[in-house]
Every structure is written in structure tokens, then in C-alpha cells.
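Listing S7. Sequence submitted for prediction.
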Amino acid sequence: MASAVSGLEPSALWNNFAALSLIPRPSKQEEQVLAWLQEFATSRELEWQQDETGNIVMRRPGSGGGESAPMVVIQSHVDMVCEKNSDVEHDFTSDPISLLRDGEWLTADGTTLGADNGIGVATALALLEMKEDAKLPPLECLFTVDEETGLTGAFALDAALLQGRTMLNLDTEEWGAICIGCAGGGDSQISLPVSYEGAPSDFLSFQLAVEGLKGGHSGVDIHEYRANAIVLLASVLVPLAEMGTRIVSVQGGDKTNAIPREVFATLLLPPEAMADAQIAVAERTESLRREYGTLEKGMRVSLMGLEDAPPECLSAKAQGNLLGLLRTLPHGALKYSHTIPGLVETSNNLASVAPVDGNYLVVCSSRSSIMEALEDIRLRIASMAKMCDAITTRTGTYPGWQPNPDSPVLKRLKRIYAAQLGEEPEVGAIHAGLECGVIGERAPGMDMVSFGPTITGAHSPDERVEISSVEKFWDLLLELLAELAEA
């Protein structure tokens, strides 16, 4: 695996990333990587602390003339989104990530790469390993847990751990962009009661599958109008239901912050409707291909026969409620910002559907930079659910991060970027949740910016990091820290 990063600069950063990729670190299951970080700190005789949630802070004294400078917080999260292609066997709780170099990009073999936010973690570790005469201010590197499934680490952060009041978040995924604000958000968990009845004895059993979609981050990529597998499946089910098709089960999507890439439904079809069903699926598939064009080149919609006939299916009422709910719930960018051109203001991701404990659980992840708009879309979702006899529970609400264009660290970073690159950086906000919003509430007065190298396809097996942008990002970070060492 080390060969995938051999010869890449900065070598310390890449070597740390390769080492990190050997260690399983799914969200909410970070025990192994936290133990590894503790060993990293102990073996290098670094001062470190850990709070009850698992968040770790490692400190390095200032050096190279920066001994008396104010403390700077370097922040990243240790967990990663665990997604793989359906034909890949990989256990994220035990298997290492297999790194592959593809020209100017580093990617993984059929799984998420974990560059989000492993590159940030590796960067912090490389800073902590720098020579004793490096020009650096005092650093405290904050490694948070469970960012990807609820910002849990940030919410439960013991703010007493942090001494610094300038923070550099390393979780932005576009080189040349400096983030100074983010959306707030929250989930809506819809519990739909269902009943079952005996399956018609002469009906044929089939699986309807939607696969091969791009997926991606439900905030950062939502403006690209990538296809949602659940939305597509529901649209295919409509003509089938009109032919008397009965639904046995529907399941797809498993991450609230990922656009669903695949979904599967087990169906029972009347024998006399088989030919028409095949034609309807083919026609709807062709219509979807025209709609999404080259955006979803890998799209596959299939209707395949099954040998075993299930003994029961959803009742007519339950089937109508489930299909009506999936067809009604919004998905995608719902409104754009009036103040920041091109920025999605409000969105919703129809994230998952699955049978759970005798009911169907449908989960939506909503985001908005306007908290009133977030409240409105969640109320609308609850109203839609109620019309289908479902109950909605709100979870995972998190605050946004209000931009501060007069931020002192932002002014320094913009000036250094322009001097190094000969052009101005793009300063703005993103339509996704960053820990900055939560940490800013936990540690009032924190001056924050977020930046990083280019990462595409985050939260999907297409995730990759641009190698050249990592070195540029590192050089920019070192120059900023050298200047902060003089403060």
C-alpha cells in the first residue's frame, strides 16, 4: 500500500495517510484509530488529552521563533463514510483501505477512500512531527469523532480542552476555496406503520433493482441533480403498481449524508402482466437515461426473476402509503441563496428506506443556511408523512456557521494565497455541515476558516484526492502558520 504514495510530497503527510488507511475507522466505531492516535502521541512524547466522547487533542509547543505566539487549533475528524460498490467484498470494521494511484489522483479499490477527512488528520500528524526548529506557533491538534453521522464529537466536545482561539479546519474539499460559513441541518426519521397479507399463490416473484448511480455527498453534490436511487425506483414502481404488482419489500440507502446509489425491491407480479411489466420497466429506464444523460452513465435498472416466492406482501393500504410517501417526499436543491450566487440555500436528501421492527423507516436529511427555512422543510416533511399515517421524529439537528468576512485569520490566509498563487482565492460558504458551526458554539470567540485540497466523489466509492493540490495546500498551511508564529 505504501507504494501508492511512494515519492509523493510532502512525504510525511502521505505516509501518515497510508498508515491511517490501514486502520478501520467507521463512524461510531473509531476505537482502533483512537488507540492508534494515542500511541502516536505517547511515542513522540506529545502532550495529549481525551474527553469522554473520544475527541483527542495533541499539543506541540511553538518553535523557530513562535514559542510565545498564541495557540492555533488544527481541526480534523477521524471517522470516514464507509461505502463500497455492490460487487466488492470489504469489511470496514476490519479491512484496510486499498489505495490506488490513478495518474494525478489517489483513489481506493471499489470503496470510499477516506480522504474525507483522513487527509486532514494526516496533515495534523505531519505538523506534529516537524523538526524542532520549524517556524510554528504552539499547536493543538483536535481530532474529533463521529463527524459523518451527526457531528457527535463536536457536539459533545469538552471546550475546556481547547486553549486556542484561532482554528484552522481542514475539511474543505476544493483547492482554492476558503470556507467561512456552512449550512445547518437535521434529519427526519419517518416511521410508517405497515401491515401484511398472504401473497397471491399464482403471482411470480421478482427483484427490481436500481444500481450504478454516482451518489455523492448529500450537501456538497446536491446542486448537481445527481439521480437518487429511491426516487427512481418509486417512479418505476408506479406503472407496475397499476398492473397489480404487489410490493414485498423495499430497501436502499444507508447514510443520511449520502445520495442513495442503489435500492432493491422484491415484488410479486401477476403472470398475465409480465410482458407489460418488462415493457414498462424498459420504457421508464429509457426515459430516465434521456433525463440524466451523461450525468448517470452507469445507471442500471433491472427486473430479474427470483426462485423463492415470499409467503406475504404488503397490504394494499400499506403499499399505497409507502409508494405515496416515496413519491411525495422532496429531494434535491429546493432553493438557492439570494446573497451568495450559486450557493444552495435549502435542500433535502431522501436518504434511505428499509423495513425496521415491523414498520418502514424512511429517513430524510435536510439542510439550510437559514434556520427558519430548515424548520419549514422539516414541517413539510412531517405533514407529508402524516398524510400517509406515518410519524416523524427529528434527530441530529446542528447549527450553521455564520460567515465573518472580517476574520483576522481569513485576511492573512487570503493575502498569503494571493502571494503564492498570483490570484485571489474563492471565499464563500458551503451547503454542508461543518464542525466549525458546532465548535464555534462550544468555544465562543473562535476565529475560524476551513480549507483543504481537492477531493471529489466524497461519500462514494468514486472518492479521490488530487495529488498536486495536496502539496499546494501543505505549502499554504505552512506559510500561514509561519506568519501566525510571528503574531
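Caption to Listing S7: primary sequence and predicted C-alpha cells for the chain studied. The mean pLDDT is 96. The chain is about 30% helix and 25% strand.
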